[in-house]
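batch job 7 of whatever, protein = Ryanodine receptor Ryr
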Amino acid sequence: MAYRPNPIDTSSIVLSEDVLELTEKLAENAHDEWALQRLSEGWTYGPERNDALKHHPGLVPYADLTEGEREYDRITAMKTLKALQALGYTIALKK
């Protein structure tokens, strides 16, 4: 049987402005977590991806990624925030 992804339906979720502000911070954190995992596996920066040599062009600080690469991380972060709310969780700033 073929795999059929079934993500949480977030089409009706609207994030508040304060929660939307988390998107960039979570996107940068997601990139840093990904990079930390790669580095711990022996990957290093390389101008082109090379799986045999474990080189990856994305092993740079978040600010140095292309806008397209940062947008990929932003979308992941935003979808995660929306999924949390769709599951009934509340996201609030601790004061």
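notes: The mean pLDDT is 95.
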